[in-house]
Design goal:
Helices cover 10% and strands 61% of the residues. The chain has two helices and 13 strands; from the N terminus they run ααβββββββββββββ. The strands form three sheets. It has an eight-stranded antiparallel beta barrel with strand order 1-2-4-7-8-11-12-13.
Length: 204
């Protein structure tokens, strides 16, 4: 996708040098977007939903691409309930640096911007869970006990990310935008994180 962006940018420059070529003022300014995102993601093992929040800087690159640099937090917990008041802890926490290239097939600075993103991320995550859990055989008095085997992981990871994004301009100057994104991440710890976020953007 980066090659596509470079090719399109080169084409734009050649067109700008042609006699009579005009470039819209908004495109010439190459505005950057600052985005705040809030939504949910499925935890690394896919058992429950967790919070995902991010802040992103997305400058324009050519007329059909943006670069998105993002700091994202993913976290939440949901104990697994076995009944009778017995639970096993489950939680997921991650802090990621994410980088995407967005391709906008219909162009930038439109009232509605649609984009496809692809990129990579690096981060640190901690996941608590269990490999086995259940009730033990009753003793002579008929009492049962509950136990589980913890399965905890933590450490650095890298992975890839793909996304589908749409933004709607809120004013005529297209300074403020609202929209959303659907994304899928996968990292070296075999964590698959699909999710969606609401986004508020401001152009600078």
């Amino acid at each position: 996708m980066a090659l596509i962006c470079s090719a399109v940018q080169a084409q734009d420059l050649s067109q700008a040098e042609m006699p009579g070529a005009t470039v819209a003022a908004s495109a010439a300014r190459r505005p950057a977007l600052v985005r705040l995102g809030l939504g949910s993601s499925v935890n690394g093992s896919g058992d429950y939903s967790v919070l995902k929040a991010h802040v992103e800087y997305a400058p324009q690159f050519g007329r059909y691409c943006r670069l998105g640099s993002r700091l994202a937090y993913i976290g939440g917990s949901q104990p697994s309930d076995f009944g009778y008041g017995y639970t096993a802890p489950q939680s997921y926490r991650a802090l990621n640096l994410e980088q995407e290239v967005y391709w906008l097939p219909f162009g930038l600075n439109k009232t509605v911007e649609f984009s496809l993103g692809i990129g990579a991320f690096v981060g640190y995550s901690k996941q608590k869970g269990f490999s086995q859990a259940g009730f033990n055989t009753a003793d002579l008095n008929g009492n049962q006990s509950f136990s589980f085997i913890p399965a905890n992981e933590k450490g650095f990871n890298v992975g890839y990310i793909g996304s589908l994004n749409v933004d709607f301009a809120l004013d005529e100057a297209r300074t403020w935008r609202v929209g959303g994104r659907l994304a899928l991440q996968n990292d070296t710890r075999a964590n698959i994180l699909p999710g969606g976020q609401f986004q508020l953007s401001r152009a600078f």
